[in-house]
Amino acid sequence: MNSKLPDSAPQSPIIPVQLRLDDKFRFRCHKGIACFNKCCENIDIMLTPYDIVRLKHRLGVTSREFIDLYTVDFQMDGHGTPGLKLRAKENSTACINLTPEGCGVYEDRPAACRYYALGLVSMRKKDAPRDEDSYFIVREEHCLGHLEPVVQTVCGYRKEQGVDLYDEINHEWRQIILKKRSSGPTVGRPSERSFELFFLASYDPDGFREFVASPGFGEVFDLDPSFKQGLMADEVQLLRFGFRLLRQVLFGEKSIPLKPGAAQMRIARYQQRMAQLSTGRAEDLADAQDKIYESLGD
Ligand code: SF4
Ligand code: SF4
After folding, report:
1. What ligand is nearest to the CA atom of residue 103?
2. CA–CA separation, 226 vs 230, rounded Å?
3. Percent of the chain with pLDDT over 70
4. 102 and 157 share one domain
5. Among 29, 30, 45, 97, which residue has the most ligand 2 atoms within 8 Å of its CB, making it the best to mutate?
6. 145 with 257, same domain?
7. Structural domain boundaries enclosing 224
8. What angle do CA 53, 237, 60 make, to 5 degrees?
9. Which numbered atom of ligand 2 lies nearest the CA of 145?
10. Which atom of ligand 2 is nearest to the CA of 35?
11. What pLDDT, in 10s, does the model give residues 165-176?
């Protein structure tokens, strides 16, 4: 979904005019249009957590299988925050979901596909409590939808494309990414472990469910049993819980209660493991030293 512009248009695929929800723009996409599916032949689509929930159900696979078969990974920032993009077909730039009849997952297509030909920018002004969204038009040479005689508001287009629900569910996740970016060195480089948790909570809901159900998680976090049951049954609730856990781990914003003594128990277990490790190392060293005597002979 990226290309050059016609000569009459400015020399950038993005028209740098900020639109608000009530602003109007001219655009219509429909099956009969001459460029039908052109936008899916050269893709660069970043996936959000809710995209993955919808697509894995649509395709009848687990989230792990979806990641392996339908995505490629990339780094979202200089710290290496993991991101996923939709995969293209083998030896092609066309979307893996593109069929001769059109999008093979249309009802569950990702948020980025729903937004097109709009783009979204989220920014937070200094000291503002929330970020502000604005929109811009993406104009690509192949896309004839801009010539169609249909004018609508940004708000109306978002509703028609069903993107409101995606944005509502992904909102907290986008906030985490924005906060991580804007806090920079004050938060410091996240550990490998926190990246693993970010990946699990963001992109692998089946793996995250197993993690939350595991005895180790139950030893540390104090979850009400009926709340936990709800998480096991509802993937959107589970996503939202994952975002809370990420805030707790990445920014120290404690909203999930810990069991009393959980931290001490983990430290004790860690120390026990370290002691076992050093005993093992001492034994290895003794073995190695014994071998030296062996090589000296009688
Ligand atoms: S998911 Fe569907 S709409 Fe989105 S790029 Fe692929 S084929 Fe096109
Ligand atoms: S009008 Fe634009 S968005 Fe619609 S099919 Fe054509 S290229 Fe794609």
Report:
1. 1
2. 6
3. 83
4. yes
5. 29
6. no
7. 190-295
8. 25
9. 1
10. 6
11. 999 999 999 999
